[in-house]
Specification:
Bound molecules: calcium ion
Shape: globular
Distance between the termini: 56 Å
Radius of gyration: 23 Å
CATH class of the largest domain: Alpha Beta
Structural class: alpha/beta
Number of helices: 16
Strand order of the largest sheet: 7-6-5-4-8-1-9-10-2-11
Length: 509
């Protein structure tokens, strides 16, 4: 009976979206952690609109990235290929080749209208878009510049006054309103929120300030057994800056001289002064030092971050409302994801990059009424590289043979539980925050990581026994068999994905 009802559901849902090519709306945020989303169990975060996507659709419990950093993650999303194949390995030295194929180009050729609005962090002169209006590089929270182009024509750069998440959403809704109504569409809305340095819209000051935000258990991690973790420079205590990050400036002149504040108009700047000056005065009076100061920094970091997330969540609500009010909900797939996860004080950190769970995983929520039942939990391991082939299959577009991701449409349809048993990861950048390049493989229970260049060495974690990844058991005789099996798995993934850099590192021994 159950099988029959699953079958009927699948057939009905298939019928709904097979009649007409579904629209696709991707909302990709920046550095937004699953730990701070209500639907993922956060007790402190207020994310009603993200929770709405999860309630009306699916929450992915094992959504991951392949290279935990801004540009490379978006390059993988677009191309359905790992960094070694799409060429965008790191933010510091790579240039994205827009001449290569992408799911956007494939959809465009299959009759879709296509647009990207907001942060992309892959240079300019995009291809395959009817319209784009992107932030140059990292973009700015206040009065951002936009680079825009219609139908591949010459780019125009302009500055618009206001707050970035509001303006990006305005532009996205304007495009949805003004484009033709007959063809299906695919729009990517790229938010700058919640990237460093965390700057909420003026109306979101104070929303999370008085919450009791517990310190993560691993906040005062000593990194024993993990060399790469011990040499990083992304500690809230040691590396988070009082001025740049936490807006604690000695005086108003110094604050105004900081790049983020220089571009503000007087009213915006005054609102920031009015909010932060009393916090600074209070801090001076308190004379904190040592662990107490580290805890204070953690709290202020979290408050700024959560307030900045509120500014985005509110705008995601505007997009969901637009789809509802324009009768587009039924036939539109909405995907929310971050370009990677982020440390919310775990191991004492902010930032990302590592293959440890908090930055390896990313929040992923998806809804489409004809396809996904409300409150679905998707337990299959899926990765950002799998999204492009999934969209293509969903839209009835042939998946190019050189895309490396695996479509998870069968999981969305309830036909399969899982599409893969392991995930490969490779982080290349060797600069900011002093995180050593590394690659590895996880099967969900065990994770094997090989660090190279900055730190040379292996790490193995037993995620069932040690979910916080505090104890490296590489070389422990008890794990000999596991280690051998994981090393074999790692080599087979490297071969499958033709990752020559990783292969060379292993060959050196
Ligand atoms: Ca990012």
């Amino acid at each position: 009976m159950r099988l029959l009802s699953i079958l009927c559901f699948s057939m009905i849902s298939f019928a709904v979206y097979a009649q007409k090519k579904p629209n696709i709306v991707v909302i990709i945020s920046d550095d937004h952690s699953y730990q701070t989303i209500g639907a993922y169990g956060s007790k402190i975060a207020h994310t009603p609109n993200l929770d709405r996507i999860a309630n009306e659709g699916a929450l992915f419990t094992k959504g991951y990235v392949t290279n935990s950093i801004c540009g490379p993650s978006r390059a993988t999303l677009l191309t359905g290929k790992y960094s070694n194949k799409n060429g965008f390995k790191d933010n510091e030295t790579s240039n994205f080749n827009h001449g290569q194929n992408s799911f956007i180009k494939e959809l465009h050729q299959n009759g879709y209208q296509t647009a990207w609005i907001g942060k992309i962090h892959l240079g300019r002169n995009l291809e395959g878009f009817d319209y784009y209006s992107i932030l140059p590089g990292q973009g700015h929270y206040f009065n951002p510049d936009f680079i825009s182009s219609v139908n591949g024509e010459k780019e125009v750069m302009e500055r618009e006054e206001g707050y970035v998440a509001d303006l990006v959403t305005d532009r996205a809704l304007n495009w949805l309103d003004s484009k033709g109504k007959d063809e299906p569409f695919c729009i990517v809305i790229g938010h700058k929120n919640t990237h460093r340095t965390w700057m909420p819209a003026l109306e979101d000051f104070g929303k999370n300030d008085n919450k009791n935000i517990p310190l993560p258990e691993t906040f005062f991690d000593d990194y024993s057994t993990r060399k790469a973790a011990s040499v990083q420079e992304m500690s809230i205590d040691k590396d988070m800056q009082m001025g740049y990050d936490l807006k604690m400036f000695e005086n108003i002149e110094k604050m105004r001289a900081d790049g983020n504040f220089k571009r503000m108009n007087d009213a915006q700047f005054q609102a920031y002064v009015d909010y932060y000056k009393p916090i600074y005065d209070e801090l001076k009076k308190s004379n904190l030092s040592g662990q107490d100061l580290a805890k204070w920094k953690y709290h202020r970091y979290m408050v700024d971050y959560l307030n900045t997330a509120e500014s985005m969540d509110r705008n995601i609500g505007r997009v969901l409302d637009y789809l509802r009010d324009n009768n587009l909900e039924e036939n539109t797939l909405v995907l929310y994801l971050s370009d990677q996860g982020f440390y919310m004080g775990e191991h004492g950190w902010f930032d990302k990059r590592f293959m440890y769970e908090e930055s390896f995983r990313t929040p992923m929520l998806m809804k489409m009424p004809g396809l996904i039942k409300p409150k679905t939990k998707i337990e299959s391991m899926v990765s950002v590289v799998d999204i492009a082939p999934t969209f293509l299959e969903l839209s009835g577009t042939e998946v190019p043979a050189d895309m490396q991701g695996r479509s998870f449409l069968s999981v969305l349809e309830g036909k399969k539980k899982s599409i893969q048993d392991q995930l490969f990861y490779h982080y290349y950048e060797n600069g900011e925050h002093a995180v050593s390049p590394h690659f590895g493989v996880s099967d969900g229970q065990y994770k094997l990581i090989r660090f190279y260049k900055r730190v040379n060495g292996w790490e193995l974690f037993d995620l069932n026994k040690d979910p916080k990844e505090m104890k490296n058991v590489y070389g422990n005789p008890k794990y000999k068999k596991v280690q051998e099996r994981m090393e074999k798995l790692l080599r087979s993934e490297i071969d499958r994905l033709e990752d020559t850099e990783a292969r060379d590192v292993l060959a050196q021994k």
